Amino acid sequence: xxxxxxNLIEARGLTRHFHLARGQTVHAVDDVSxxxxxxxxxxxxxxxxxxxxxFGKTLIGLLDKTAGEVVYRGEKMPSxxxxxxxxxxxxxxxMIFQDPYSSLNPRMTVGEIVxxxxxLHTRLSKGKVLDSVVExxxxxxxxxxxMSRYPHEFSGGQRQxxxxxxxxxxxxxxxxxxxxxxxxxxxxQAQVINLLDELKSSMGLTLLFIAHDLSMVRYVSDRMAxxxxxxxxxxxxxxxxxxxxxxPYTKLLVAxxxxxxxxxxxxRPYTPIRGEIPSPVNIGPGCRFASRxxxxxxxxxxxxxxxxxxxxxxxxxxxxxxxxxxxx
Length: 328
Prior knowledge:
- Helix content is 30%, strand content 23%.
- The protein is an alpha/beta fold.
- The chain has an eight-stranded mixed sheet, sandwiched between helices.
């Protein structure tokens, strides 16, 4: 990863481990380096348990870093956030949480939930806060009558809209969107995605969009990064990754993505990813996908692959893959 004046936020060797009893260590995120340019949407994909959400939370300081660093607009972020750090960055960095059912305080009204960031991080008067809450409820498809209601009175899609309004009401530059549609019905998912796309265009947002639905990530993202067992295995332009994957894991991940045409879905050959994602506890050397890879070699079991720069054969765009198949 090379530094660029266009980069809004950079992760450099970002690592997050959880230490358990008996000397065991969970390698949730291991030595991840990536940069997100201003006004870019970077999609982060992978199976459940691959470390996507942990990476997003560590990137913005909700989890302490074990190693590595995060640089935001050229400023190195603290390894461990103090309350003053959250206050300092709250109007620039926000997060839309995955579960709209547990991320909203059931004892607070919608008006209190959406207005809380302004009350905590600005000096606006009560009247100004109220006006902003009404404005943002309307922007996300709700209305002022909803202010006095409680979260349990809303559907999942409406709750996610409330979470989006709460995250964006302070006008952040960078937002981590952690699987914002995974808990929603398919009919509601498109509405939320279109809402995020409209708000991104109108506000100039930069997003880290975390999801496991590759088709949705390709639709909303400029670039795509693929994570497996805490490490990145491939990164490049979203269309390049989706249509011409290089890493064996990415190829199987794309192949498992269902076709929108039911007839085509019935006829296409299905190649499942064999086995289960291994335990992230006390991971040894070698490629982390070696135990499930259909193209595994001896070197894969003993040497950890480095990111190799490539050029996409059709688009000419730069991309990277961590696989011994592409080593010189």
